[in-house]
Amino acid sequence: MFRDLIPQLADRFRLVAPDLPAFGQSDMPARGKFAYTFENIAHVIDRFTEVIGLSRFAFDYGAPVGFRLAVRHPDRVTAIISQNGNAYEEGLSDGWNPIRTYWQEPSEANREALRSFLSPDTTRWQYTHGVPDVTAVSPDGYSLDNFYLARPGADEIQLDLLSDYKSNVAAYPTFQNYFRTHKPRLLAVWGKNDPFFLPQGAEAFGRDIPAATVHFFDTGHFALETHAKEIATAIRDFLATE
Questions:
Q1: For residue 242, what pLDDT band results from cuts at 50, 70 and 90?
Q2: Residue 69 half-sphere exposure, CB side, CA atoms within 13 Å?
Q3: Alpha carbons 125 and 142: distance in angstroms, whole number
Q4: Which long-range contacts (CB under 8 A, 24 or more apart) does 30-38 make?
């Protein structure tokens, strides 16, 4: 995800892009040995930052995880950069309806109905939906995602996380209270055609952080796939001002 962004910022910043547990090249413990919840993943990343010596940081590494760390350690967060990282109910589109159905009734049938979210075609769609010129999207991202999703057991882990995503929505008031109380510097760089997280979610940051900076780009959820240069410029400008 950050392969095109990191080289454009590396001359000025120390950049760390960890794969979350069961994502990318990180370990994928069996579900019986590790409960795949966002709270547990946040514990892992929290410890990771301590082990590698990140005593203070600006972050964007999975909004539900990052917001949890900010709530725990507001003194360590120098800034937040949210790339389609939602923290408001109004930012959730109707695309969440099948997942909400599973939250309300966690039956096996409703779980199975979500399996289509993990298909190769859907992964590609998530990268290309809302992108005016789909040839601008390299196949590297979605091909690698599909490779990792094809590992034995990866599908069940992802379904567990879709189930637990309701804990993130339940935590939105906590995140918003953190925003209001601590007023962190915040930059939202948002693909305005995201099928899951609406522009209203980006605009809502300004309600709790009046000084928040919001930029919209004519692209989908994975804005860095098509607008890494523009987002890098926005980040450099944002972090250059105190």
A1: low
A2: 28
A3: 9
A4: 30/153, 31/153, 31/156, 31/157, 31/160, 36/157, 36/160, 36/161, 36/164, 37/160, 37/161, 37/164, 37/167, 38/64, 38/65, 38/68, 38/161, 38/164, 38/165, 38/167, 38/168
Alpha helical stretches, state H, 53-132: 63-72, 97-104, 108-113, 120-128
Angle at the Cα of 17 from the Cα atoms of 12 and 22, rounded to 5 degrees:
180
Which of 185, 184, 182, 178 shows the shortest CA–CA distance to 238?
A: 185
Identify the three-state secondary structure at position 141: helix
- Which 3 state secondary structure label does DSSP give 74? helix
Known catalytic residues are 221
Query: Residue 87, SS3?
Result: coil
Look up residue 118 and give its two tokens. 């993990």
Which class for 93: exposed (0-12), middle (13-18), buried (19 or more C-beta within 10 A)? middle
pTM across the whole model: 0.94
Digit-coded pLDDT (tens) for 78-89: 999 999 999 999
